[in-house]
Design brief:
35% of the residues lie in helices and 22% in strands. It contains 16 helices and 22 strands.
Length: 479
């Protein structure tokens, strides 16, 4: 007969007993508990064991001797076949087998080492990394500017009243649950210490401007300091130095429009800061291009929340709940898993393209692209932007002339291709495809249109040459 269950995180089937299966029992104890069945095929079919009585006596003794655990061992019967069920509870302390630690991941048993072991030890103790106390640091060591920003934000967003904020820093931190007895926690030093990298390697943000699909970095910056200050500095730097705004006017009021909404990117940055795995020595990385921006932070998604469900309603499960609480009390974020819902609402209101999140290299990468409307407006204004390392941005003198010279019947895709070429004349077909979101076949076709129309010409070989944008005053033909 077949058991009405299948192997999963809490169930494992084994045809016969081997002492090596004590690893599975260790893994169950370190995860959520579970049941190990002996005398059952992988498909759940009961095959039975011939020595059930002896095993029912030996297995508990071996478990107790190897790991000090007490587990229930039952002999069950199905169609005259006897099999054994070993029931393992979740233990409140890390359990090792021969000095090694194991855990369940899906229906597999894996050895745990390095920072994963540290996380497992914290997890079985019901703790998170940011709740661990830090010795030899006091409230006097924290950055006063960071604390002031927190107080102003908390008051501005009505998360705390003035009476709660007009207290000494150590009292405020205790009220925020940032003390463990007489020690500040890692959440406190990460959010408010002037140098959080003393407590978490690479706890900073790295920003770079790339010319062509990661091939050439033109300039870069690193943002250090408390997490509170890092967010403020990063947003200011990205939207002044790294991204070019379209300028328009409503009456006498000057309007700035960026290819991705500032409020939405702020939500993405806050998510990266709050959910980053600070046990891994890798900074948050932001890659800016002429027409896209990518943000990546180390740390796998929770098993209960897949990337596909980020824009749907889902429970809030921050990796660093104490850091998240600081940012919540300051009014930076909400506490109910609504970050991506807010991003979707902002993008809908601004008519922007929804960002695309994906799991990448052990972390989460989110790519943000401009809308077609933005690209049309940019081209219509002649605001085709090229970047350099000296002045951050500049506009080629003939950008407006090129835009005006293109005939009215010029295909929109050809315009988009020309725009990408002006930003990066050395771009390959593949790079242009990535930059514009068009197929390589489409790019080749419209490059030919632009070349035949006299707007571009190829200089040098296909491999090492570049596209030259022809002076519009010399252009004679029409597309």
């Amino acid at each position: 007969m077949k058991l009405l269950k299948s192997e999963n995180r809490n169930v494992e089937f084994k045809r016969s007993w081997h002492d090596d299966y004590l690893k599975w029992i260790c893994a169950f104890a370190n995860t959520e508990g579970g049941s190990l069945y002996i005398g059952v095929e992988d498909n759940g079919e009961v095959c039975g064991v011939s020595d059930s009585h002896k095993l029912s006596e030996d297995i508990p003794n071996k478990i107790l001797s190897a790991m000090g655990l007490i587990c229930d061992v039952e002999v069950l019967t199905d169609d005259g076949k006897q099999y054994i069920k070993v029931s393992v509870g979740k233990y409140p302390f890390p359990v090792s087998y021969h000095g090694r630690y194991y855990k369940r991941s899906g229906s597999t048993t894996q050895e745990v080492t390095g920072h994963e072991l540290d996380k497992m030890i914290l997890s079985v103790q019901g703790r998170t990394w940011d709740s661990v106390p830090v010795p030899n640091v006091t409230a006097d060591d924290l950055d006063n500017d960071s604390v002031k920003i927190f107080k102003n934000k908390a008051l501005e967003h009505n998360r705390l009243d003035r009476e709660s904020l007009d207290v000494p820093n150590d009292v405020l931190l205790r009220n925020l649950r940032l003390y463990e007895n007489d020690y500040l926690t890692k959440a406190a030093v990460m959010c408010f210490h002037p140098d959080p990298e003393k407590f978490a390697t690479c706890a900073y943000i790295k920003i770079g401007f790339f010319a062509d699909n990661d091939a050439d970095i033109l300039y870069q910056d690193e943002i250090h300091g408390s997490l509170i200050l890092q967010v403020e500095k990063a947003m200011d730097l990205i939207y002044t130095k790294y991204m070019k705004a379209l300028i328009s006017y409503e009456g006498i009021n000057r309007q700035e429009t960026f290819f991705f909404p500032k409020e939405a990117f702020r939500e993405l940055l806050l998510n990266a800061v709050i959910h980053r795995d600070y046990m891994r020595p890798t900074p948050i990385q932001i890659r800016v291009y002429a027409h896209k921006i990518r943000i990546w932070n180390i740390g796998k998604m929770p098993e209960e929340v897949s990337v596909e469900k980020l824009f749907e309603s889902h429970p809030s499960e921050p990796r660093n709940p104490n850091i998240a609480n600081v940012f919540f009390k300051a009014g930076y974020v909400e506490s109910w898993g609504r970050g991506y819902k807010n991003i979707a609402d902002i993008c809908a209101f601004r008519k922007a393209v929804l960002p695309v999140p994906q799991e990448n290299s052990g972390g989460l990468m989110v790519e943000c692209l401009p809308s077609e409307k933005y690209l049309e407006a940019e081209f219509g204004q002649g605001r085709i932007v090229a970047h350099d390392t000296q002045s951050n941005t500049h506009e080629p003198d003939n950008c407006t002339e090129i835009a005006q010279k293109l005939p009215r019947n010029c295909p929109e895709i050809a315009q988009k291709t020309l725009l990408a070429l002006i930003n990066n004349p050395k771009a390959s077909i593949k790079a242009l495809s990535v930059e514009t979101g068009l197929s390589e076949r489409t790019i080749k076709y419209h490059l030919k249109l632009l070349k035949d129309g006299g707007f571009i010409e190829r200089v040098g070989s296909d491999r090492s040459g570049y596209w030259s944008i022809i002076d519009p005053n010399k252009t004679q033909q029409q597309l």
